[in-house]
Amino acid sequence: MTVADSGARTSDWRGIYQDRAVGALEAASKVPPDSLIVFTSYEGEPTVLIDALISTGALASCRGFQSVRGTRGLLAEPDVTGGFRLLTYAPHGRAIDAVSDGTADFIPSSIHTICRLLDDGVIIPDVAIVNVSTPDGEGYCSFGTSTDFSALAAKRARLVIAQANAAMPRIPSDMRLHVSEVDWFVEVDVTPGAAARAVVDDVSARIGQYVAELIPNAACIEVGIGAIPDAALAALRSHTDLGVHSGLLTDGLMDLYRTGVLTGQSKEIDRGLMVVNQVHGSHELYDFACRCSAVSMRAASYTHDPRVIGTLSHFTALNSAVQVDLRGQVNSESLRGRQVAGTGGSLDFAMGAALSPGGRCIVALPSTSRDGKHSRIVPELPTGATVTMPAVLVDYVVTEHGVAELSGKSLTERSRELTAISHPAFRDEMLAGSR
């Protein structure tokens, strides 16, 4: 990666930028064969550069990470990329099939672990390909909607290629990229895609109400994507003085902030700030994130560090699951032998909640599969299923049938609590499995 001299950041950054601005095809030609590449993900996916890399065949011998998901999934299709091998710790969409059929590789890891591997030099990216804003008056580019761990990779990579995107929101962040830290720029004007809001059905609404009752005033919260987190946030509108330290800033958090509930004034660190790593939602949310002084984008090495999270009193982690067994073990990533997701940040936040004074880890899920044929509370996890969260970290499990309180409970008591919140059609099965 290019290292700036002491004067470049304050004087002639415009000249540096002009000298390093090239077309997308030329930038693609700069990627050495056999490179390990890190791409920005979510709505920050550098689509113009990915298309150029595919069209020139530059990806054919390469492999690389995409943090959680890309908006199109092309990197999971070797027939499209010419043989590029995707490395993922959280498969989504087409990447699920690619991992299943062996054309992509799954790496068991949490988000904080990936950051630590980058920091420790265990993973050394040859190339970082990122999507950033155009430079500000001092020559700094914002990572916009998607800081993820690609921001850290851009500080570590041997070669940095950036889309300088005139349409990328400039969201306040402690992670910025100076012009002098980028080897090649490709100027684009591509509006980041927007994510549709989840539809909150009756089941999600009931679960959200139960979750909200577990969260005390002045707590600091973390939420993910989906109908249940959105329902829980809507049910928190009568709370006071909540804080946010989360992987994601969502439309639901924006709505709750506007009600005056999210003040962050009780946070021991980052007081008054909503500290997040990704902005995932509507274009209205992107505009809000740019204009709201309380929004602070941070590197994933900070947002997902359990030691940082543990300094926040009453930290409440809310995450989902595929299955929970009667011990309280949580599988959030495998289904019938297929890797359908990854650990992501759920384990990081659960560990942080365990370190937090008054902290709690809540796992929320519907009691059955969508077709109602399978219970998601199970006597024991199936052979080969992943234990994403050990039972010792889970304080509460919530379904539409109520709340199972697990902290301090024996195996017999846990089994009774979890059976009570399973779907009535499967309770005999739970009772038989608990004997």
Strand element count? 24
CATH topology of the largest domain: Glutaconate Coenzyme A-transferase
Alpha-beta content class: alpha/beta
Largest sheet: 8 strands, mixed
Low-confidence stretches: 1-8
Model description:
The protein is α/β, with parallel strands linked by helices. It has 2 domains: 13-188, Glutaconate Coenzyme A-transferase; 202-433, Acetyl-CoA hydrolase/transferase C-terminal domain (Glutaconate Coenzyme A-transferase, 3-Layer(aba) Sandwich). 29% of the residues lie in helices and 19% in strands. The chain has helices spanning 13-20, 24-29, 47-56, 78-81, 94-101, 111-119, 150-156, 202-214, 227-234, 251-258, 283-291, 300-303, 306-309, 346-355, 411-420, 427-433, and strands at 36-39, 63-66, 85-88, 105-106, 127-133, 140-142, 159-165, 176-178, 184-188, 220-222, 243-245, 248-249, 274-276, 278-279, 295-297, 315-319, 323-325, 330-331, 334-335, 338-339, 360-364, 377-378, 396-399, 402-405. The strands form 6 sheets. An 8-stranded mixed β-sheet has the order 15-13-11-10-16-21-23-24, sandwiched between helices. It has a 7-stranded parallel β-sheet with strand order 4-3-2-1-5-7-9, sandwiched between helices. Mean pLDDT is 93; it is low at 1-8.
